Amino acid sequence: MPHQANLRIIDATANRIGLPKEKVMVNIQKYGNTTAATIPLCLWEWEDKLKKGDKLVLAAFGGGFTWGATLIDWAY
């Protein structure tokens, strides 16, 4: 689940690492860049498609050269 700032960057990154589009959680086309709410909003929207034990990578970028990422196991 990438930070929803730019669809071209999301698509290019997924393509570069060989990740199929159906594995990338995207909702930028619906809400635009919602800054700090992009990951929670996308997670809320995709929650019904997740199964217990799914592995999620959450990655976000901020102003300047800040970033953060985590790997989680979906527990619900």
TrEMBL record:
SUPFAM superfamilies: Thiolase-like (SSF53901). The keyword Metal-binding does not apply. The keyword RNA-binding does not apply. Residues 2-74 form the Beta-ketoacyl-[acyl-carrier-protein] synthase III C-terminal domain. Keywords: Acyltransferase, Membrane, Transferase, Transmembrane, Transmembrane helix. It holds the Pfam family ACP_syn_III_C. This is Beta-ketoacyl-[acyl-carrier-protein] synthase III C-terminal domain-containing protein. It comes from Niabella ginsengisoli.
